[in-house]
Fold this protein.
Amino acid sequence: IGATAAGVPDAGVLHLGVPFDGSWRAALDGVERPARAGFGVTTAFDVPGPGVLEISYDRPVTRTLWLGVLAAIWLTLIAATLRTRGGTRAVHEPVLDLGPLPSVEEGPR
């Protein structure tokens, strides 16, 4: 994903409103800043001073592979459920024949 750059006036902490993910990158004047968990769940970067901060996201290749595998599984399952069988269908006989059901009009036995 493309990078976004912005001027930083002073030192502080940059909090991204996304769950912590080590694929986020931040570089202050070209120097990489390590990502950390902010507030326990969000992605945060410590900014030591003023400069130009560049933020980017490196999408891992494994994510794309997993999405491809999941898509293949879903397509296989959908194809298996929509598959039609040729020829005549077998008539299913009941496993247990309970006989005729009593009519509502007959009343209790």
